[in-house]
Every structure is written in structure tokens, then in C-alpha cells.
Design a protein that fits this description.
It contains 8 helices and 11 strands. It is α/β, with parallel strands linked by helices. Bound molecules: phosphoribosyl ATP and magnesium ion (MG).
Length: 214
């Protein structure tokens, strides 16, 4: 049995065509069903639906053989025990620093001000500001970072931006790009050795489907 860990929403949607290219179709829609384990048309392949941030953990411990996770999530997790053979070029966005429209970010930097930053991506943010030689106070949030600067919790946020609509709707502006983000295929290292005959054709089909789209 091959187990593939996925999150609902954009990753599931953008993975469906890749699975199809490997001859795999889910028999149920995770948005409609409450089931956490979904059967597929292939009796030897099942999908498990987990929180996006939990995908690397399931694969690391071998509860899933394969998983699909954003680079943002993998960077925070650290990637121990995971083989990352393929950038799937899906769920693309950018990790950015953003502030209120009326906040002078670069002026504060020049003055050497110590900024308060809210983020879910503490490790990524710490490394980014340390590399710039900036001292910041990081405050961990689990969602809606955009609210932080609006209510005085922080001067800046580190968050993902795709269309920019959320920043605009909340009178925020992006001031710095940290990195480009896309989702990656992750593979359990032991599974790769023990189940290579089954996993390799799936990985090859993904790889060809990604190349065909570029
Ligand atoms: O939503 P939930 O709390 O359950 O979990 P999650 O946010 O971890 O999962 P999900 O499914 O929302 O995101 C899964 C992955 O999609 C992330 O790990 C990213 O790699 C990728 N991705 C791509 C994004 C976005 N684009 C994105 N725009 N993840 C989140 N966003 C959010 C962003 O945090 C911000 O709040 O969307 C908002 C900004 O979007 P725009 O279009 O308004 O700029
Ligand atoms: Mg989300």
C-alpha cells in the first residue's frame, strides 16, 4: 500500500491533475467528505488528508510514503528524514515582509529601530532578519498575521502573498521579498528503498506532468 499525504484546498486542487497523470483518481472529494482516508481508483494507493503543516511529519515518520507540502512549511519543519526530489511548481506565492501603508519601513531600518514582527514562520523570519543584521522581536501567530500591524501588535508581518489582495484589503504594503514559494514532493527515505518499484513510476509521472506544463 502507498499512502500519500495531502492538505485540502489549493494543494489538493492543484495536485489532482498530477495524480491523474500518474493514473490515480480520488474516489471522494475531501471538501465534501469528512473522511480523513480517501480511497483511489488504485487499490494499492490511498490519500490521507492532513493539515498543510503536518504533511512533513507524516512523511518523516513513514505514516505516509509521499506527501506534498509548500516550501514555507518544509523550511519551518527542517526537512529531517525527507527526500525532496521534485519542485511541483504548484501553489506558488512569495514569502514577504509587509507593513502598514503609512509605515516608513526603510526609514526605521536606517534609524536602527527594533521592529516587532508577527508571523507563523518564525524560523524563516529569524533567518531573514539575522542575515540583514537587523534586530527584531518576533511574535508567533497561527493565522491572520495581517491584523497584527492594524491593532498595534506589531510593526511588520512575514507572510505569504499571492495576488496581494489580502494586503490591499487591509491597507498593508509589501516592502521586501524573502523567497519564492512553491510546493514540493516529499518522500520517506525508507519507503523509497523498500517500495521503489511502486513509487518510482508515480514520481516519474509527476515529473513529466510538471515538465509538460512549463
Ligand atoms: O489554511 P489553514 O490554516 O488550514 O492551513 P494553511 O494556510 O497552512 O494551508 P493552505 O491550504 O491555506 O496553504 C497550503 C500551502 O499553499 C501553503 O503552505 C503555501 O505553500 C501555499 N500557498 C500559496 C499559500 C498561498 N499561496 C496564500 N496566498 N498559502 C497561504 N496563502 C495565504 C496567505 O497566508 C495570506 O493570508 O493567502 C493570503 C494571501 O493571499 P493573497 O492572494 O490575498 O495575496
Ligand atoms: Mg490557509
Amino acid at each position: 500500500m502507498i499512502t500519500i499525504a495531502l492538505s485540502k484546498g489549493r494543494i489538493f486542487e492543484e495536485t489532482t491533475p498530477l495524480l491523474a497523470a500518474a493514473g490515480i483518481t480520488a474516489l471522494e472529494d475531501p471538501e465534501a467528505s469528512r473522511k480523513l482516508i480517501l480511497s483511489t481508483n488504485r487499490p494499492d494507493v490511498r490519500l490521507i488528508i492532513v493539515r498543510a503543516t503536518d504533511v512533513p511529519t507524516y512523511v518523516q515518520y513513514g505514516a505516509a510514503d509521499l506527501g506534498i507540502a509548500g516550501k514555507d512549511v518544509l523550511d519551518e519543519h527542517g526537512g529531517e528524514g525527507l527526500y525532496q526530489p521534485l519542485d511541483l511548481q504548484i501553489a506558488k506565492c512569495r514569502m514577504m515582509v509587509a507593513v502598514r501603508e503609512d509605515f516608513d519601513y526603510f526609514g526605521s531600518l536606517r534609524r536602527g529601530a527594533r521592529l516587532k514582527v508577527v508571523t507563523k514562520y518564525v524560523k524563516t523570519a529569524r533567518e531573514h532578519f539575522a542575515a540583514k543584521g537587523m534586530h527584531v522581536d518576533l511574535i508567533k501567530l497561527y493565522g491572520s498575521m495581517e491584523l497584527g500591524p492594524l491593532v498595534g501588535l506589531a510593526d511588520a508581518i512575514v507572510d505569504l502573498v499571492s495576488t496581494g489582495g489580502t494586503l490591499r484589503a487591509n491597507n498593508l504594503k509589501a516592502v521586501e521579498a524573502i523567497t519564492d514559494i512553491s510546493s514540493r514532493l516529499v518522500v520517506n527515505q525508507a519507503s523509497l528503498k523498500l517500495k521503489r518499484d511502486t513509487l518510482q513510476p508515480i514520481m516519474d509521472a509527476f515529473s513529466q506532468a510538471v515538465a509538460a506544463k512549463q
